[in-house]
Design goal:
The complex is a heterodimer of chains A (1264) and B (126). Chain A is α+β, with helices and mostly antiparallel strands. Chain A is built from 30 helices and 55 strands. In chain A, the strands form 7 sheets. In chain A, strands 24, 25, 26, 27, 28, 29, 30, 31 and 32 form a 9-stranded mixed β-sheet that branches. In chain A, strands 16, 17, 18, 19, 20, 21, 22 and 23 form an 8-stranded mixed β-sheet that branches. In chain A, a hairpin with an 8-residue loop joins strand 40 and strand 41. In chain A, helix 4 packs parallel to helix 6, helix 5 packs across helix 6 and helix 22 runs antiparallel to helix 25. Chain A is extended, with a radius of gyration of 40 Å. Helices cover 19% and strands 37% of the residues of chain B. Chain B contains 1 helix and 6 strands, in the order E-E-E-E-E-E-H. Chain B has a 5-stranded mixed beta barrel with strand order 2-3-4-6-5. In chain B, strand 5 and strand 6 form a beta hairpin. Chain B is globular and about 50 Å long. The chains are: A alpha+beta (1264), B alpha/beta (126).
Chain lengths: 1264, 126
C-alpha cells in the first residue's frame, strides 16, 4: 500500500485499455495475478482459450475518489449506475462489499478492474476498498433519501409512517407521468417499487431489532422522484437484507380493480441501512427455489443478443428480455452473479431440456464477483423495437426460442445496405414474422404494467408457464454440420472400441473407398427436430447448397425454385450420409442432445474428422418454405430488366457433363457445354415504368395450397389480340407473367415476333447451337434439359455479338453476367367453356420433359416468366416445344445411324431398341442413344469392357420394373451428390450396346439426380436390404458356397446357370442352422461379422408349394433378419440388452452366444408353427452348457425369421448328390427325405416390394 | 320403382366420365376412385379428383367412413345427372384406399375389362 501509486481516472480513460490493478501485487511475468474475483470456483468458468484475462498493472496502484449515486449528468445507457469521481472525471462503476455509508464519501479503491467503454470513457469495478477518512463514519446510520439541501425539513403530518423489515424484491425504475405542484404541466416522474416483508409494530426501534419482530406483513414502498430513484443501484444491493424507511406517506393504488396500500417516499424519507442480525446471514445457494420464483447463483458463460440472452451453466439460460431492466455493466462473461426472484422454468423442448431463468419485474441481479476476463460490458440498448415488444408479450420458453431464431437470422447477409441499423431492423421484422407464424397462441401472455406485475405478481401471467414446448430448434448451418460431425465421430469411436483393431482398421479403408458411393445412411428430420434456415445457391462445384453466413450443406432437391435472395425454411428433410463404413449400419445413431449454445455461438470446436463421410440433405416434399422477406429494391430491379426489352428464346436439348482434366481422348477443357435450340421467335416486352410501380404483391403463404398463378385470376379475354395474331401471322400477342423475388408478380402484355421478319430470311427455322459456359458461369447449373429460357437482346449479348445471325452448330460463348430467365408456355384454351387456362405440359422451366411426366401432376409454375399465348399458337409452338425426338437430331448432320431416341412415354422405356449393330471397324463404340429415367438399385464395381468402353462400374437401374445395366467409367457421375442406390436419376444420351438392357455411359452422357428416396423410412435403409441389394458384391466364393467350390460341384454350378427360378416366399420354419465363429480366412472378412453361417435351411412357402431352401452366409443373415434391431419385448434377453442399448442388432447378440460356443448346430423338425419347438435340438461344440436364456434366444431366432417379410429368392435346384456333399462338409445329418420336400439352393435373396411385384405381375399378364 | 335391381359398380377412372361416355348416364352403377379434394360436412358432399378430372360424391348414406382431404377414396354408387348436365355419384359404400398406385389401378381396370370381354365372348360362343 505504501508504495502504491495513486492513479487518476483520466489516466485510465486516456490509456483506454482494460486493466486490473491492486494496491499490493505479487506479480510474475508468466501467470496473471491471482484475482479475488476468480478465486471462487475457478473451474466453473468455461476455459475458453479465446478468452483473455485482464492485463494486470505491473505496479501496485490505488484509486482515490468518491462513490456517488447515479445522476443525470453522467450519460449512461444503463441509466442507474453508480458513479465514481476523483474530482476530474466521473465514470460508471460497480462495487463489491457495498455499504451505504460509502455513498458520498471518499474511498480508496485497493483492488479494481477498469474496462474502457464508449459512452462514458470507462467502467470501474471496485473489488476491494476502504474509507479514506474513518473518523466521522460512526455517526452515519441514517440516510435521507433526498439530501437536506433540497428538502425544507418541515415535518408533514402525513409523512409519519415508517416501514422496516426484510427487503424482498425491487422493481426496475419506471417513469410515471404526473402533475407536480402548482404547474399544470405533466412531468415524467421516475420511481421504483420495493417489496418489504415488514414487522407490524408501529415504531421502528433500531435497538429492539432482535427481540421478537415478525417480518410477516407484505408492504410495498414506492420510491418516487428522480432523487429517490437514484437510490436504485444502492437498494438493489440491499435486497435480501433488512432495511427501514421512515417519513413515508400512505397512498391507495388501484391495481386490477383492487386497491392496494403503498407507502410513498416524501422529502423527509430516511433510509436506514442494514444492521447485522444474527438471524440474517444470507446463504447464497446455487439454486434456491420457492414456487416458480427462486434465486440462482452462477457464472456468466456468455452474453448474446445484446445481453438479452445470458448463458449461465450448461443448458441454463437467463432471459433479460424486458426493456425496462436496469442492469449493471458488470454482468460480463466470467462474472459470478446472483439472481433473485427469477422465474425458474424447466422447459422440455423437442431437442432437449433447458432451464430458463426468466427475469421479470421482481428480478434483481447482483454481481458477486467480477469477471477476471477481458470481456465486454453489458450495455442496455434503449431502442425498443417491434421485435422486443413482441418478445415481451410471450411466455418465457417462447421468448427463448424467438431469441434463438433471431440469432439464426443474424447469420444472413441482409439486403445490400451499409446501414447496420436498417439491416438489423429487417432481421427483427423477419424474426417477428417467422416467430408469429410458429408460436402457438397459448404461448402469448398478456402483460400488465409494472405495478400490476410487481404487486400482484402471483396473479399475473408470469406464473402459468408452459413447460412442454414443441417448437423445433432453428439452427445455423455450421452448428448443424458440426452436430452431425460430432455424432459421426462418436459413433466411429464406438465402433473402434467394439471391433478389434485388426478387424476394423486393417482392411476397411480400401473397402470404404470402393463402395464410397453406395454406402449410405439416412435419417429423418424428425429424429433431430431441427429446422434449418438458409438460402439455396449453386456452388462452384455444381452442387445445390443451402447456405447461411456460417456454412453450407449440400442439398438434393428436385424441382425446386431456386431463388438465391429468399431465405428458406427447411423442416422436412433427410440427412444422407455417404461413405459410411458398413459396420456402421448396424449402429443406431446416438442422439446427442442439442446445445442451444451452438445456436447463438456457432464457433464449432475443431473436430478431428477421421472419416470422410459426405453428407447432404434430401429435402422432402413441401419442406422448403420461403420465409417472408421484404426486398423492395430487388424486384423493382428485376422488372426493370424487362422494360422495353427484346429477348431471345432458346430451349436446352442437352447438357454435356463438365469434363475434368485427363479425360481420355479429350483435350483439357474447362468450359461446360449445353446444346440448345434457338427458336425463331423473339419476345418483345413492354413493361412500363408504371407497370413496375404498380406491380401487385402476392404473399406466398403456403406453397402447396395457394398456387400463385395470376393469369388464372385475371380472366383473359383477349379476343382482340387473338384476331390480331391471326391477321398478322408472324406476330403473336401474349400475356406475360413475371415472377420476381418475394412473390411479386407482374402481368403485362408482350409480343412474340417471328425472326423471319427481322432478319432477312436467315432464321426461318430453329437453329441448333452449342452454348459454351466458362467455369465462372453458374448459369450452366441452373439450366435444365428440356427447359426454355429467355436472354435479353442487346448489342453485346452472346447471340448477337460478332455475327449477323445464328446458324446451325454455332458455338456461342456465355459470359458470367448473362442473365437468363426460365420461361413456360401456356395456351389459352378457348374450347373449354369456363375459360380456364391449360398449361402446356411439355414445356416449362421445370424438367417436364416427356420422360419425366410423372412429376407433372404436382408441378407448379416455378418459372421466372410465364407466357400465355392464344390457343391458335399452340399448333405453331408445338413444333418447337413438343417433339424432342424430332429435334434431338445429333449435331453431326448426315450420320443417320446415330439417331437419338428419346422415349416419349415413361411406360415405354428404352426406345432405343436393341438393334443389332453390325460389326464395325470403327475405333469408337457405336449404337443408339437413349434417354430414360429410373431408380438406381445398385452400383457394382466390375472390371470388364463393354463395347470397347472400359468400364469400372455397373449401375443397375430399375426402369419400369426391369433392371437395366449401365456400364461406364463413372468418374464424374459417381461424385454427383446423392448418386447411388435409392436415387432416381435421368440418364440422358447413353449409348445402347446392342444387347438388351445394357447401356454405356459416354463422355457426352448426362446424369441428373431427380430425387433421392428416403429409402422408405427406416426399413429400407436397414442392412438386410443393403445386403440384399448389393449381394453380387459379396465375394464370389460365397456366391457358390465355399464348400462346394471343388470339382465335385460342377453339376451344381451347371444347374445354377441353367435353372435359376425366382419365387416369392415366406419362411415357415428354420430347418437347420449352423452358426460358427469366423475362421481366419481373410476372404470371409467381408462380412464384418464375427459369425458365419456356413449352412442354413429354411422351410419356405411360395403360396403353391413348400420347399426346403438352403443357403449360406449373407443370404442366411438376411432371411434370419440378423441385421435388424432386436425388439426388446420379443424375448427376455435382459442381460444382453441392458448392457448397452446402442448395440441392438440381433447379430450382435447372437455373436455373444456363438463366441462362447464356437459352433452351434440347431435343428428343428417341426415345420408347422404349433409343433415348432417340440422337436428342436441344439448342439454346441464348446464344453459349456447352453444357458436357459441362450436357448431361449436361439429359439426366438426361428420365430423372428418366421415373422419376416416376403422374400424373393432366386434358387436353383439341388439333387441328392449335392445334399450328400453338404451333409459331409458340414458334418450334419439333414434327413431331408423325411419331409419329402424339394430342396433348392438360394442364390439371391431380396425383400419384395408388393407394389413392384404387382407391376411385374401386370406386365406379365399384359405380355401374355 | 322401375329399376329395383342393384347393378354391380363398374370400376372406371374419372377420366372416362365425360358427357358422351358410355358411363355418363343416369343411374348407372359405378366404382370410382380418387383423391378427396374437398368435403362439406353440412351437405355431406365430397369431391374426388384424379388428375384433372373431378367428381362430386354424395355421401349422405355412408356412416362408417371418415373423410380426410388428401386421402384417396373409392366409392360405389349410382351416377345422377343434374339438370345443368353436372354429374354426381350417390354413394352406396366407400372406403379409404390410401397407398393405391393409381397407374397400376388404371392398368388393372383395362386388364379386367379385357378379361371380362374375352370371358363374355367365350360365354356367348358356348
Amino acid at each position: 500500500m505504501e508504495n502504491a501509486t495513486i492513479l487518476t481516472i483520466v489516466e485510465l480513460v486516456h490509456k483506454g485499455r482494460a486493466v486490473t490493478g491492486s494496491s499490493s501485487l505479487f506479480f510474475s511475468d508468466a501467470t496473471p495475478t491471482p484475482h479475488s474475483s476468480s478465486e471462487s470456483r475457478p473451474g466453473a468458468v468455461d476455459s475458453d482459450s479465446s478468452r483473455k484475462f485482464l492485463t494486470p498493472l505491473n505496479h501496485p496502484a490505488v484509486i482515490v475518489g468518491t462513490l456517488a449515486l447515479p445522476s443525470e449528468t453522467l450519460k449512461c445507457p444503463n441509466r442507474y449506475c453508480f458513479r465514481f469521481s476523483d474530482g476530474d472525471l466521473t465514470i460508471c462503476c460497480d462495487i463489491l462489499r457495498f455499504e451505504i455509508r460509502a455513498i458520498g464519501t471518499k474511498i480508496c479503491v485497493l483492488s479494481w478492474n477498469f474496462l474502457p467503454m464508449k459512452h462514458s470513457g470507462g467502467f470501474l469495478e471496485i473489488i476491494k476498498w476502504k474509507f479514506v477518512d474513518t473518523d466521522n463514519l460512526v455517526s452515519r446510520c441514517s440516510f435521507p433519501l433526498i439530501p437536506s439541501l433540497y428538502s425544507p425539513q418541515n415535518v408533514d403530518r402525513k409523512s409519519r409512517y415508517s416501514v422496516f423489515g426484510v427487503l424482498e424484491s425491487i422493481s426496475p425504475v419506471s417513469v410515471v407521468p404526473c402533475q407536480e405542484g402548482v404547474s399544470s404541466d405533466s412531468v415524467n416522474l421516475p420511481g421504483f417499487l420495493v417489496h418489504v416483508m415488514a414487522c407490524e409494530c408501529k415504531e421502528y426501534n433500531r435497538d429492539a431489532i432482535d427481540c421478537g419482530h415478525a417480518f410477516e406483513k407484505s408492504v410495498f414502498v414506492y420510491l418516487c422522484g428522480s432523487m429517490a430513484a437514484s437510490w436504485h443501484p444502492a437498494i438493489t444491493k440491499l435486497v435480501g437484507s433488512n432495511v427501514a424507511f421512515s417519513g413515508l406517506k400512505k397512498k391507495l393504488v388501484y391495481v386490477r380493480g383492487d386497491s392496494l396500500l403503498v407507502f410513498v417516499t416524501t422529502e423527509n424519507s430516511v433510509l436506514y441501512p442494514p444492521w447485522l442480525s444474527k438471524k440474517q446471514i444470507v446463504l447464497k445457494a446455487g439454486v434456491d427455489r420457492r414456487g416458480n420464483c427462486g434465486s440462482y447463483l452462477g457464472f456468466v458463460r456468455g452474453l448474446y443478443m445484446r445481453g438479452k440472452l445470458v448463458e449461465m451453466d450448461e443448458d441454463v439460460w437467463l432471459l433479460l428480455t424486458d426493456q425496462i431492466h436496469n442492469r449493471s455493466h458488470s454482468i460480463r462473461t466470467g462474472s459470478l452473479i446472483f439472481i433473485r426472484n427469477v422465474h425458474l422454468v424447466n422447459t422440455k423442448f423437442s431437442w432437449g431440456e433447458v432451464l430458463i431463468l426468466g427475469a421479470c419485474f421482481k428480478t434483481s441481479i447482483t454481481v458477486e464477483s467480477f469477471s477476471p476476463f477481458e470481456t465486454s460490458c453489458l450495455v442496455d440498448s434503449c431502442r425498443q423495437t417491434s421485435l422486443s415488444r413482441f418478445i415481451e408479450s410471450l411466455s418465457f420458453p417462447a421468448r427463448f426460442w424467438t431469441l434463438l431464431v433471431r440469432s439464426c437470422f443474424q447469420k444472413f447477409d441482409g439486403m445490400p445496405s451499409d446501414k447496420e441499423i436498417l439491416r438489423s431492423c429487417q432481421k427483427d421484422e423477419l424474426t417477428k414474422l417467422y416467430a408469429e407464424s410458429r408460436i402457438p397462441p397459448s404461448m402469448f401472455q398478456p402483460r400488465g404494467g409494472i405495478f400490476t406485475e410487481f404487486c400482484v405478481h402471483e396473479s399475473c401471467g408470469c406464473n402459468s408457464e408452459a413447460h412442454d414446448c414443441n417448437l423445433k430448434l432453428v439452427m445455423p448451418i455450421s452448428s448443424f454440420v458440426h452436430h452431425i460431425k460430432v455424432m459421426l465421430n462418436e459413433l466411429l469411436s464406438q465402433i473402434k472400441k467394439d471391433f478389434s483393431a485388426s478387424d476394423f482398421l486393417s482392411d476397411s479403408p480400401s473397402t470404404w473407398k470402393r463402395y464410397n458411393h453406395t454406402n449410405m445412411k439416412t435419417f429423418r428430420s424428425e429424429d433431430t427436430s431441427v429446422i434449418l434456415l438458409g438460402r439455396l445457391k449453386i456452388s462452384s462445384s455444381g452442387r445445390l447448397q443451402l447456405h447461411d453466413r456460417t456454412s453450407s450443406i449440400d442439398v438434393l432437391a428436385p424441382d425446386l425454385d431456386i431463388n438465391a435472395s429468399r431465405i428458406c425454411e427447411v423442416s422436412d428433410y433427410s440427412i444422407i450420409m455417404e461413405g459410411i463404413p458398413e459396420s456402421m449400419f448396424h449402429m443406431p445413431f446416438l442422439q446427442n442432445p442439442l446445445r442451444c449454445r451452438s445456436v447463438v455461438n456457432p464457433t464449432p470446436l475443431a473436430i478431428e474428422n477421421t472419416l470422410t463421410v459426405r453428407f447432404s440433405l434430401s429435402l422432402g416434399t413441401a419442406s422448403c418454405k420461403h420465409v417472408l422477406e421484404h426486398h423492395p429494391l430487388d424486384w423493382r430491379h428485376d422488372l426493370n430488366e424487362f422494360k422495353e426489352g427484346m429477348f431471345h428464346l432458346f430451349r436446352v436439348t442437352h447438357k454435356f457433363p463438365i469434363l475434368r482434366n485427363g479425360h481420355p481422348g479429350m483435350p483439357d477443357c474447362t468450359s461446360a457445354f449445353i446444346e440448345a435450340l434457338v427458336l425463331p421467335w423473339e419476345l418483345i416486352c413492354t413493361v412500363t415504368e408504371e407497370d413496375a410501380a404498380a406491380a401487385p404483391y402476392f404473399e406466398e403463404h403456403d406453397n402447396t395450397s395457394q398456387e400463385i398463378r395470376p393469369h388464372k385470376r385475371y380472366k383473359t379475354n383477349n379476343e382482340l389480340e387473338r384476331q390480331r395474331a391471326l391477321s398478322v401471322p408472324h406476330e403473336i400477342s401474349c400475356q406475360m407473367t413475371i415472377r420476381c423475388a418475394n412473390s411479386h408478380c407482374l402481368v403485362t402484355a408482350a409480343t412474340l415476333s417471328n425472326l423471319r421478319e427481322n432478319k432477312s430470311g436467315n432464321m426461318h427455322s430453329t437453329k441448333r447451337v452449342l452454348l459454351e459456359f466458362i467455369p465462372e458461369c453458374s448459369n450452366y447449373y441452373a439450366l435444365q434439359i428440356g427447359g426454355c429460357y429467355l436472354m435479353k437482346h442487346g448489342t453485346d449479348d452472346s447471340f448477337c455479338v460478332g455475327r449477323s445471325g445464328i446458324s446451325n452448330n454455332d458455338k456461342i460463348g456465355f459470359r458470367p453476367e448473362t442473365r437468363l430467365w426460365s420461361v413456360e408456355f401456356s395456351f389459352d384454351e378457348v374450347l373449354t367453356h369456363d375459360g380456364s387456362v391449360d398449361v402446356y405440359p411439355l414445356v416449362s422451366s421445370q424438367p417436364s420433359l416427356a420422360v419425366e411426366q410423372r412429376n407433372d401432376s404436382s408441378s407448379q409454375p416455378c418459372s421466372d416468366v410465364s407466357l400465355l399465348l392464344p390457343y391458335d399458337a399452340k399448333r405453331l409452338f408445338s413444333v418447337f416445344l413438343k417433339d424432342l425426338e424430332e429435334l434431338n437430331k445429333p449435331l453431326a448432320a448426315g450420320n443417320d445411324n446415330n439417331n437419338i431416341a428419346c422415349c416419349t412415354q415413361s411406360e415405354k422405356i428404352m426406345h432405343a431398341e436393341p438393334s443389332r449393330v453390325p460389326p464395325s471397324n470403327s475405333l469408337f463404340p457405336e449404337g443408339n442413344l437413349a434417354t430414360f429415367r429410373g431408380d438406381i438399385v445398385a452400383v457394382d464395381a466390375v472390371t470388364s469392357s463393354v463395347v470397347d468402353v472400359s468400364s469400372s462400374y455397373c449401375i443397375n437401374v430399375l426402369v419400369n420394373h426391369q433392371i437395366v445395366k449401365i456400364f461406364g467409367p463413372l468418374r464424374r457421375h459417381s461424385y454427383l451428390t446423392g448418386f447411388g442406390p435409392g436415387a432416381s436419376a435421368t440418364f440422358y444420351r447413353i449409348l445402347g450396346t446392342g444387347e438388351e438392357n445394357r447401356f454405356v455411359l459416354t463422355s457426352a452422357s448426362f446424369v441428373k439426380i431427380n430425387s433421392r428416396k428416403a429409402l422408405d423410412g427406416p426399413q429400407l435403409e436397414k442392412p438386410t436390404h443393403r445386403a440384399a441389394l448389393c449381394l453380387p458384391k459379396i465375394t464370389h466364393q460365397e456366391y457358390v458356397p465355399c464348400i462346394l467350390a471343388g470339382p465335385g460341384c460342377n453339376s451344381f454350378s451347371e444347374n445354377k446357370d441353367n435353372q435359376q427360378i425366382k419365387f416369392a416366399c415366406k419362411v415357415l420354419s428354420v430347418y437347420l442352422l449352423v452358426l460358427q465363429t469366423r475362421s481366419d480366412d481373410s476372404s470371409e472378412k467381408e462380412c464384418r461379422n464375427n459369425i458365419v453361417i456356413p449352412l442354413a435351411g429354411f422351410v419356405v412357402d411360395d403360396g403353391s408349394s413348400i420347399y426346403l431352401c438352403w443357403t449360406s452366409g449373407e443370404r442366411a443373415f438376411t432371411i434370419l433378419r440378423l441385421h435388424e434391431e432386436l425388439p426388446e419385448e420379443a424375448i427376455d434377453v435382459a442381460q444382453w440388452i441392458r448392457r448397452d442399448s446402442s448395440r441392438g442388432t440381433t447379430a450382435y447378440h447372437l455373436e455373444q452366444i456363438v463366441r462362447v460356443h464356437k459352433r452351434i448346430v440347431m435343428k428343428c423338425n417341426g415345420s408347422q408353427i404349433d409343433a415348432l419347438f417340440q422337436d428342436i435340438t441344439i448342439a454346441v461344440t464348446s464344453d459349456q452348457l447352453l444357458t436357459k436364456s441362450e436357448d431361449k434366444f436361439l429359439k426366438w431366432l426361428i420365430l423372428n425369421a418366421i415373422s419376416g417379410p416376403i422374400w424373393e429368392v432366386a434358387t436353383s435346384s439341388m439333387d441328392m448328390k449335392m445334399i450328400d456333399h453338404l451333409e459331409r462338409e458340414q458334418c450334419v445329418k439333414m434327413e431331408t427325405s423325411r419331409h419329402n420336400l424339394q430342396s433348392v439352393w438360394g442364390n439371391e435373396v431380396c425383400q419384395v416390394d408388393p407394389l413392384v411385384r404387382a407391376w411385374s405381375l401386370l406386365q406379365g399378364l399384359l405380355n401374355s | 320403382m322401375a329399376n329395383t335391381r342393384i347393378e354391380p359398380g363398374v370400376p372406371i377412372t374419372l377420366q372416362e366420365l365425360y358427357p358422351s361416355s358410355q358411363f355418363y348416364k343416369e343411374a348407372v352403377s359405378l366404382r370410382v376412385t380418387g383423391m378427396l379434394s374437398g368435403y362439406s360436412v353440412e351437405t355431406a358432399i365430397g369431391v374426388i379428383e384424379d388428375g384433372s378430372k373431378s367428381l362430386k360424391i354424395n355421401t349422405q348414406n355412408l356412416r362408417d367412413v371418415s373423410f380426410r382431404v388428401g386421402s384417396i377414396y373409392q366409392f360405389i354408387g349410382e351416377l345422377h345427372i343434374e339438370p345443368n348436365n353436372e354429374a354426381f355419384l350417390q354413394a352406396r359404400t366407400g372406403r379409404n384406399v390410401d397407398g393405391i398406385d393409381m397407374n397400376l389401378y388404371r392398368k388393372t381396370i383395362e386388364l379386367l375389362r379385357k378379361f371380362l370381354k374375352e370371358e363374355g365372348n367365350s360365354n356367348m360362343a358356348e
